[in-house]
């Protein structure tokens, strides 16, 4: 039996990710690789965050009677206005979020943080906020990397953050239907721990898994590292309970396969806190897999590897697709070889002899019954070999899995060492994938390499669909004096390239503040009107997460979508 | 290579289904079974439809300049106001629709029928209808059995039916992404014929397949007979172009796996013509299967068969689930044996010897690669046997497939013979399935058997999900003098039982007029407000298919949803 239960970690430190003591510091070899590659004079720890006591946070602008009423709703213990709690809720985990907080800026912190214990308490909090014209930001794990939980007050007098930490229970398991209902504030590891006695798993492991909550998964249409096998959060969720300023809304049929009108659950999924607070959700669960099988393959190029993944998806038997299916480009493969810390010398020499001096590495993990896993791996090997792949055995997959939640810790260390690092992602149809990869990569490099600075971009595919695949870019450069401007410049360049390529502005990071300006290109002006209309029904005062998802009412950027066309 | 291309048939006759010459009349043995079972004095052809020339149709209430403008938009040849065309668009194919038209009542016929050739023409027609306050009904195959295409004029001066017949082209195939884009008026057989040169299939075969259109599939979240394998229309559609009174709306991302906010495509899918006219859609396609494999199993009871299907779905390997997966209850199995016309005597005797005097029969069809089909069938056989099934070989599945589009013809003959017949459907989670089956069946029987009348109900599962299954009820009785009242009585009783059981009001027939009163129980009062708000954004004047999907603004019926709960 595979163990899907993962470590529960304390909630993140105010300036970065998780529990810093769990980070694995970079070795001297890796540091030297970084310094040389990014042409930096130093990668010493010269850029630590300020002391918590030096962080600037604005005054609480709420009237005393508002706080009195909030305390009456949730109990006095569950309303916080102290600086530390407010700083901990001053934003999410994007690189600009961290740059801002590390420099001591938490001026946008919410006026108060409320920790409700029930849906009824959430409802009462919303009613009070409607009455007193206060903005409401829902906070699950606080792991948004697109500004999704920034406590913007918009046109309101104050902003309350509703932290869902106390609503973390398993409510109900229907073993026959294979569904489980949880309160929305439950975090990834606790979901798996609660399902373990039933022998079930949700199978949802985004990199943010240890911090993120079920409500966040649903609110952002999240995808996990094994979503090629288990499905994205939007595939997993069957129904959700939403508390809105207009009342309680149960979205999603209790029955399977209904045709009773539009699927309104898909209005709630991806709504990013702009319609109401998701207080509970029912999700599909499956038995914990009996076993895992690992495979890895080296391809002569990223394009060749992507074509191999497409063939596996299209030509493989129904059980062939691995649950985890990743392909690194040659740059990411090279840095993995250099920084990964495994005994890769022999492997690299072997690939060199086989003619792959700059390989692109694919990692697979099959989860399930041993016989089915073996069959899937065996059949897929045929397709991989036919596509020019060289088998590299199980170790690279196991090694990746071992470190799969540790990426964000590395970012904290890099920032301390004066290295700018950020990620962004998209997805495109197979026909547009190579073009999207090339143009987004070039846009990132061009915008980082101004004034002779060096930069490094590495890319992977982590999700494979019938019609296309995701692309995830990680990029590094020296941290400029104005890191926020540096970040905004890269992000704008990359986003423009994504839109021009006909790809989606986000595959799994969601919209938040950062991608809202591109929603016009994504869903059209009328689509934005539809979104705004739905919001107007459920949140007529506009208090829910203002400034997120729905762009300000300006003309949306125009784009042209290339298409691949053919005749028989 | 399996042939998925099906016969193209002329559009339906005005009083019933398809091309009546293709119906297979009931034999004397079957007629006698019916007469005896329903305790009827006669099943002679005493109830033919009136002559077309005797059908009553109201006057055209449109101003001449409206017709002039419509003709200017589409060309004069593509605007019809003649009685025959109007009668052909006077409603759909529910039993009450047919009873009404067969009796000579087409008073609700639209004032005019417009046949646009392009999305731009649709847009211009809608603009004119907004300006002149005319209701608009979109008509694809006209196969709705829930009143979805009734030309209700609501509070408007007139009603225009937009018939999509001319918009029937394949626009685009993306072989790499395995998607195809069609105009929405293309009918089922033409979809398959257009895909055949590419070696691809949509795999969507509802019983209405030969008449229904792609736009209708999308507008109603339809399910086909092989949807357990290929997926429902909502799984197949990737994007749709909608012309609305507020403008053109492209719903659905061109990219796979986006997280850019709520999936607005799911607002269009299932919107049943109430938001606008779907003019084209992009759908997932797959290679035509190399081969089909058939299986059938007899179970001692419907419950035992349903449990076997659940185990197959939950415990089978990923490739085990057949594309077609049906289970008849003992009544449907008995009538199939009696009416089906195969050599079933020996089979029934064999099952009797094996202890199954009243079996419930399951039919399976696997489609795909020969080796994969064989493996799926072999592995599933283990699960079927363990669940008490007795194999009956491939013939029952082949026989079902041969007649799978002929059911609606039979209804026309039955009505002519004075036999009332109708169908309705639902879906429930596994834990609620037996209770739903029992209570809906009892409600149908009780409401038909008043005044000592006899009735027959037969039921099947045709779609299997991880969390539950569909239930499809077919019921017969003598046609009462007021067949419309008879139908309304049964439908109300069954719908009440469905709501009380915690099942969905419709699994694949959609909402239309008939199920609109139950939408409050299905999606809640706030859900209806959300739907109405979306409609208000796209169709502020409310001209699109008035009276459908969204119930009149009265308090929705209240219901209690039973749940199955357990602890480890």
From TrEMBL, chains A, B:
Renumbered residue ranges of the record's region Disordered: 545-568
Family under the similarity heading: Belongs to the FAD-binding oxidoreductase/transferase type 4 family.
Identification of the protein by name: FAD-binding oxidoreductase
Amino-acid positions noted as binding FAD in the UniProt annotation, renumbered to this chain: 272-278
InterPro entries registered for this protein in UniProt: Alkyl-DHAP_Synthase, FAD-bd_oxidored_4_C, FAD-bd_PCMH, FAD-bd_PCMH-like_sf, FAD-bd_PCMH_sub2, FAD-linked_Oxase-like_C, Oxid_FAD_bind_N, Vanillyl_alc_oxidase_C-sub2
TM region positions: none
GO molecular function, one term: FAD binding
Biased composition (Low complexity): 556-568
Entry cofactors: FAD
Organism: Arthrobacter psychrochitiniphilus
Binding positions (substrate): 411
Keywords from the UniProt entry: FAD, Flavoprotein
Site label Important for enzyme activity, positions: 326
Active-site residues from the entry: 472
Any GO BP: lipid biosynthetic process
């Amino acid at each position: 039996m595979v163990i899907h239960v993962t470590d529960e970690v304390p909630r993140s430190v105010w300036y970065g990710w998780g529990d810093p003591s769990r980070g694995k510091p970079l070795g001297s070899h890796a540091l030297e690789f970084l310094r040389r590659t990014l042409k930096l004079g130093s990668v010493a720890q010269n850029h630590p965050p300020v002391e918590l006591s030096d962080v600037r946070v604005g005054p609480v602008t709420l009237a005393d009677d508002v706080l009195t009423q909030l305390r009456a709703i949730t109990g006095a213990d569950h309303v916080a206005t102290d600086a530390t709690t407010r700083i901990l809720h001053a934003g999410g985990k994007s690189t600009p979020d961290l740059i801002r907080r590390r420099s001591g800026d938490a001026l946008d912190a919410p006026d108060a943080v409320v920790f409700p214990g029930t849906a009824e308490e959430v409802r009462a909090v919303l009613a009070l906020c409607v009455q007193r014209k206060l903005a409401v930001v829902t906070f699950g794990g606080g792991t948004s990397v697109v500004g999704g939980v920034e406590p913007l007050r918009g046109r309101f007098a104050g902003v309350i953050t509703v932290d869902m930490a106390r609503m973390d229970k398993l409510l109900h398991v229907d073993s026959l239907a294979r569904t489980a209902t949880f309160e929305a504030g439950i975090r990834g590891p606790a979901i798996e721990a609660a399902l373990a006695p039933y022998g079930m798993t949700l199978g949802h492991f985004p990199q943010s898994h240890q911090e993120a909550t079920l409500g966040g998964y649903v609110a952002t249409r999240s995808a996990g590292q094994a979503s090629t096998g288990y499905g994205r959060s939007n595939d997993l969720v069957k129904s959700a309970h939403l508390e809105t300023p207009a009342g309680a809304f149960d979205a999603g049929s209790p029955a399977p396969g209904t045709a009773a009108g539009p699927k309104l659950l898909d209005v709630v999924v991806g709504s990013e806190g702009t319609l109401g607070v998701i207080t509970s959700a029912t999700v599909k669960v499956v038995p914990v897999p009996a076993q895992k099988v690992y495979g890895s393959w080296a391809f002569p190029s990223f394009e060749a590897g992507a074509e191999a993944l497409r063939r596996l998806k299209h030509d493989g038997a129904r059980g062939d697709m691995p649950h985890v299916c990743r392909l690194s480009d040659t740059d990411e493969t090279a840095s993995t070889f250099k920084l990964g810390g495994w005994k890769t010398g022999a492997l690299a020499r072997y690939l060199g002899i086989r003619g792959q001096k700059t390989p692109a590495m694919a990692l697979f993990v099959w989860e399930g019954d041993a016989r089915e896993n073996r069959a899937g791996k065996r059949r897929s090997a045929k397709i991989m070999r036919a596509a020019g792949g060289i088998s590299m055995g199980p170790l690279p997959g196991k090694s990746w899995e071992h470190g799969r939640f540790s990426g964000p810790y590395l970012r904290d260390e890099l920032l301390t060492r004066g290295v700018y690092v950020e990620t962004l992602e998209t997805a495109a149809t197979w026909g547009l994938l190579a073009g999207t990869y090339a143009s987004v990569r070039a846009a990132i490099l061009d915008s980082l390499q101004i004034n002779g600075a060096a930069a490094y971009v590495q890319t992977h595919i982590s999700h494979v669909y019938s019609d296309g695949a995701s692309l995830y870019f990680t990029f590094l450069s020296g941290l400029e004096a104005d890191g926020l401007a540096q970040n905004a410049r890269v992000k704008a360049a990359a986003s423009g390239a994504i839109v021009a390529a006909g790809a989606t502005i986000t595959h799994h990071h969601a919209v938040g503040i950062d991608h809202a300006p591109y929603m016009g290109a994504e869903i059209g002006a009328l689509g934005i009107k539809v979104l705004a209309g739905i919001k107007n029904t459920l949140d007529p005062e506009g208090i829910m997460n203002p400034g997120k998802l729905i762009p300000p009412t300006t003309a949306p950027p125009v784009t042209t979508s290339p298409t691949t066309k053919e005749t028989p």
